[in-house]
Amino acid sequence: MSDDKINKISFFETLTLAAGFTIGSGIITLTGIGIAFTGKSISLAFLVTAILFLIAVRPLVLLSSVLPRTSAAYTYSKELIGNKVGGFFAYIYFAGRITIAIFGISFAQYLASLIPALNDPLLLKFIGISVLSLFFIINLFGIKCAAKIQNILFVLLMIGLLTYVIFGVPKAAPIDFGDGTFFTGGFKGFYTAVSLLFFALGGSYIITDFAPSIKNPSKTIPKVVVFVTLGVCLLYMLIGFVASGVLPLEKAAGMPLSVSAEVIFPIPALKIVFIVGGALGALVTTLNSSFVWYSNSLIEPCVDGWFPKLFTLKNKYNVPYILMTVFYLFGLIPILFDIDLTILSKIAVGLTIFSLIIPMAGILKIDEKYPEEWKKSGFEKKYSLGKRKIMLFVTYIILATQVIYLLQSNPPLSNLIIGVYVLIVIIYLNRHNTHNDRLNNNC
Fold first, then answer.
1. Are 216 and 146 in contact (CB under 8 A)?
2. Is the pLDDT assigned to residue 244 strictly greater than 60?
3. Which of 36, 44, 50, 269 could form a disulfide with 233 if both were Cys (CB 3.0 to 4.6 A apart)?
4. Please, are residues 368 and 380 in contact by the beta-carbon 8 Å criterion?
5. Which of the four pLDDT bands, split at 50, 70 and 90, describes residue 179?
6. Cα dihedral 55, 58, 59, 60 sign
7. What is the CATH number of the domain that holds 180?
8. Which of 167, 156, 158 is nearest to 263 (CA)?
9. Does residue 122 sit in helix, strand or coil?
């Protein structure tokens, strides 16, 4: 067996990585916010979110099945739509990675809720920096090492969340559709909750960005995306049922799961299991996965010159260590200087939405640009151009509504920064292209 096959990650390792991308701090913090919008219909909101996500992400999953690529979303944007579009994606996506700072700080805050003596600004900084640094170092040893750590973390994560469900379901009040606790915010409140939860539940597509590192990616990726999304959806529905059922709605609304955990667990030790395995586990699995995700997503734009060539240097474990160090600094600087993480997270979500939308249009050009690969995939008869146009239209309708509802909930400053940044990128790309055209004309 070749070293290339030995170093590729298995179906199960891909599954746990995708679960790590999907199960993150969102379930801990956003469930209560979703309850504030729609009450006990939060569980139904999770189900609708999962269905809409699987429909919306189909073009990207289909592309990854036909063309497994490192930096998949960027490659599809560049090769199937245009070089300028690829550059636009790279810069939008790059700026959205500032979310990495949130994981370290959130980890410190949840740990302090377990150990009150740690609730000191300097100690919180130290803990946040330490956990960020630990997973940075782990990921420097390559994707195989990160995947092995992820397997262990995934088991602890599932133990923590399942503990919450097992002890919480018997204590949750049954849903009464006539007591006014269902659809409390009407359709607008319900769909706002769906939009809010869309990216809390929809992280499995990220594995498309390192398809070449996966064994048999054309079959593994679609299966993993569906399995993880539906499996996590079921878990989240149960968590939503518990969170909205063990406390009066006015006490559950807007609160993290640690609040409902106070009344669920009969002994303090079980609460510790939930916070360590569930809350902290959700954060560190996402943090661990993020270093892999970010680096694999942007290595090709670096090779193409959109970023300094220095970023492409790799260590003996095939890790682009300088690029990964940049992401480490993305996480470190906001922690050191107490930058408002709420504003940062809102900006990052907005930019993530834009970056997800961009490569989808490549599905219309796949047969034209890669006819042999398209024919060999077996999708030629199943997905005609007309069907792909309908698929893309539905995807854009779903994502457009998510954009509208999410940006409406953003602070004005976040939306202003997003708008200004996108405008700067467009101006730069136009000048960049004009400069290239001038050089070509002089040749």
1. no
2. yes
3. 50
4. no
5. confident
6. positive
7. 1.20.1740.10
8. 167
9. helix
